[in-house]
Design goal:
Blueprint lengths: L1 H18 L6 H26 L5 E4 L2 E4 H19 L7 H6 L3 H16 L30 H19 L7 H38 L7 H10 L20 H20 L9 H15 L6 H29 L2 H32 L3 H17 L12
Antiparallel strand pairs: 1-2
C-alpha cells in the first residue's frame, strides 16, 4: 500500500509539471522537485528534533498514544493535503489529445487559462484542437441505457486499447532504454537508501561514543560498537522511547546541506551542455564518496562525506526522472515513471535486506558492495544519451 501511495501520486505530479512547462525551464522544474524533497526532509528532521524528545502520553478509549505516534500523524498530514489538492489539478491536455479526446483537452486548456489569467474560460482564444489522432466518439449511447453485456464489451475494448498503447514499451528503441534506466535507478536507490536509512543509527552511535569519551569514531569503530551490543534483556510493555535532541542535530545538518546543494545546482544548469552530462558526472563523483566513508576517521569527516553524497545523489534522482519525461512519449510516460519508482523501491528493500549481511562479514564488505552498485549505475549512465532540450512526444 505504501508502494502505491509513493509511486502513483509522484508520477502524476511529475508528468503534469513537465507537460505544463516548456523545454527552457524543464531541467529547472525537475531540480525544483528535488529541492522540494530536500526541503521536506529538512522540515521532517526539525520536527523530530523538537517533538520526539518531549514526553507525550494520553488515552482515547482503549487506545494509548505516545510521542512517536503523534509524530507519525504529523508526517501523514502533508500526504493527506497533497491527495486533496490533486482534486483541483486539471487533466493533462497532451494526454487527452493523444487519446483523441479533443473536447476534454480544450476544456482542460480553458480551465488552465482561467486559473492563470483570472479571466473567463470563454475568452480563451483557441476554439478547436486537432492532431494526427482521430477524434474519439464519446457518445456511444446518448440515452445512457446500456445492458451489462454492452458495458462489459466497452470496458474490455478500453482495456485492450490501453494494452496497445503500452505495446511500444516492449519494442525498440524504448525497451532497451527503459531496461538500462530501471537497472540504473535500482542500483542507485539501493545504494543511497542504504546510506540514508543507516545514517540515523550511525549518528546515534557517534553520539554514544562521544558521551563515553571514545576517541576512535571511524566507521569500523562504529560498526564494531553496534555488533557488540547485546539483545535487550527485558521488553517494555509500552513503546515509549525518547531520544536526546542532540542525536537529531547531525540529521538536520545533512538535510540542510542537501537543501543548499540544490540551490547551488540551479545556476550550474545554465551552463551550456552541463545538463546533458550531469548524471554521469554526479554518479562518478558519488562512487568515490561512498567509498570514502570507509576511510573516514572522525565524526566531522563522516558527516561531510555523507552529506555531499546524499545531496549529489538527490540531483541524480531528479535528473533520471527528468530524462524519462523527455524520452518517453505521453501515452507511456506515467507508466514508465511508475515502473522506475517501483524498481527504486524494490532496490531500497533489497538494500536493507542485504546490507546487514555484508556488515556481519567484515568492516569493508558493505562499502565494497556500495561501491560496486555505484559503479554499475555509472556504467549504465554512459549508455544514456538524452537531449533535455528536445520537444516532448
Amino acid at each position: 500500500m505504501a508502494l502505491c501511495s509513493v509511486c502513483g501520486p509522484f508520477a502524476v505530479v511529475v508528468s503534469n509539471l513537465v507537460e505544463f512547462h516548456g523545454k527552457k525551464h524543464r531541467a529547472f522544474i525537475m531540480l525544483f522537485i528535488g529541492f522540494s524533497v530536500a526541503l521536506g526532509a529538512l522540515i521532517l528532521t526539525i520536527v523530530a528534533y523538537f517533538l520526539l524528545p518531549v514526553h507525550i502520553s494520553f488515552d482515547v478509549g482503549t487506545l494509548h498514544f505516545h510521542t512517536w505516534q503523534i509524530f507519525l500523524v504529523l508526517t501523514a498530514l502533508p500526504s493527506l493535503t497533497s491527495g486533496f489538492l490533486h482534486i483541483f489539478l486539471p487533466e493533462s491536455p497532451r494526454f487527452l489529445m493523444s487519446q483523441g479526446n479533443y473536447r476534454k483537452a480544450l476544456k482542460s486548456l480553458q480551465r488552465i487559462y482561467a486559473m492563470n489569467k483570472r479571466k473567463s474560460r470563454d475568452s480563451y482564444p483557441i476554439t478547436t484542437l486537432t492532431d494526427a489522432t482521430p477524434e474519439r466518439d464519446t457518445t456511444h449511447d446518448p440515452s445512457g441505457h446500456q445492458s451489462l453485456r454492452e458495458r462489459f464489451a466497452r470496458t474490455n475494448k478500453k482495456f485492450v486499447e490501453g494494452l496497445q498503447q503500452l505495446k511500444p514499451m516492449f519494442s525498440s528503441p524504448y525497451l532497451a532504454l527503459s531496461g538500462r534506466i530501471y537497472c540504473l535507478h535500482f542500483c542507485q536507490v539501493m545504494c543511497v537508501n542504504s546510506i540514508r536509512l543507516w545514517l540515523p543509527q550511525i549518528f546515534a552511535t557517534m553520539h554514544t561514543l562521544e558521551v563515553h569519551g571514545v576517541r576512535d569514531k571511524s566507521m569500523c569503530a562504529l560498526l564494531d560498537h553496534n555488533s557488540k551490543r547485546g539483545p535487550t534483556k527485558s521488553l517494555k510493555v509500552e513503546c515509549d522511547i525518547h531520544q536526546q535532541p542532540e542525536s537529531f542535530m547531525n540529521n538536520i545538518i545533512v538535510a540542510g546541506i542537501g537543501l543548499v546543494g540544490f540551490l547551488i545546482f540551479f545556476p550550474i544548469l545554465r551552463i551550456r551542455g552541463v545538463v546533458n552530462h550531469i548524471l554521469k558526472i554526479c554518479l562518478f563523483v558519488c562512487t568515490f564518496l561512498v567509498g570514502g566513508l570507509y576511510f573516514s576517521r572522525t565524526s566531522v569527516t563522516i558527516l561531510i562525506v555523507a552529506s555531499l553524497y546524499l545531496t549529489i545523489m538527490g540531483v541524480c534522482a531528479s535528473t533520471i526522472i527528468g530524462m524519462c519525461v523527455v524520452v518517453f512519449p505521453t501515452l507511456m510516460r506515467t507508466m514508465v515513471l511508475l515502473l522506475i519508482m517501483t524498481f527504486g523501491r524494490l532496490g531500497s528493500v533489497a538494500g536493507n535486506l542485504l546490507l546487514p549481511l555484508f556488515i556481519q562479514i567484515t568492516c569493508w564488505a558493505p562499502f565494497a558492495w556500495l561501491v560496486f552498485l555505484m559503479s554499475i549505475a555509472f556504467l549504465m549512465s554512459l549508455f544514456l544519451k538524452v537531449d533535455f532540450q528536445q520537444p516532448l512526444n
